[in-house]
């Protein structure tokens, strides 16, 4: 079993900060499913002559369309935690990035622990040091025995499945800060059938 974790939205609570923070977990029940998804994305890169990594924020709409159309037949599920930041009243969580990220991570993983069995966890190595530290500390110390086999921090440039996590989580997050755009929900709708659970923080 393989799970990939990524985030979308900033951790700030300033007037110009993102209104929502989304953290997601992409789950492959078997490594065969993961390998198949990686092959699909690799083939797409070759077909379109795309040498850079797939990253939602740097892809144009055509590449987004091609990507989400290509992965529709890949076998994986998505679990998400969505935090509307105006509902966070704790000053500590508002002012300390490490506490806020760890809080979100704990809730995502606690809610999804029953879905993990001796899983390899991959996290985008481009994330902040705070995020990586909080993630590893929580996963190693707090998750139930038998849940986690290994934790790896990966460079998305060299890991196609981390790129998948970025594209998926960012696609779901997009409408929160781009609701007025005609295509705000377009790519979220393309992954809807793969979403296993969404926990909207209350």
Features:
202 residues, alpha/beta, six-stranded mixed sheet, 6 strands, globular
Topology:
Blueprint: E1 2-8, E2 20-28, H1 31-48, H2 61-70, E3 77-84, H3 91-95, H4 97-112, E4 119-124, H5 129-142, E5 148-154, H6 160-177, H7 186-190, E6 195-200
Parallel strand pairs: 1-4, 3-6, 4-5
Antiparallel strand pairs: 1-2, 2-3
Describe the overall structure.
It is a single chain. With 202 residues, the protein is an alpha/beta fold. It has helices at residues 31-48, 61-70, 91-95, 97-112, 129-142, 160-177, 186-190; strands spanning 2-8, 20-28, 77-84, 119-124, 148-154, 195-200. β4, α5 (129-142) and β5 (148-154) form a beta-alpha-beta unit. The protein is globular, with a radius of gyration of 16 Å.
Overall mean confidence score, pLDDT? 90
- Summing up helix and strand content along with how strands pair, one would put the structural category as alpha/beta
Round the Cα radius of gyration to an integer and report it. 16 Å
Strand-residue fraction? 15-25%
Please report the total strand number as a whole number.
6
In the predicted model, the low-confidence regions spanning at least 5 consecutive residues are none
Helix/strand order, N-terminal first: EEHHEHHEHEHHE
Strand numbers in spatial order across the main sheet: 5-4-1-2-3-6
Overall, the morphology is: globular
Main sheet: strands, sense, barrel = 6 strands, mixed
Helix proportion range: 40-55%
Distance between the termini: 30 Å
Helical stretch count?
7
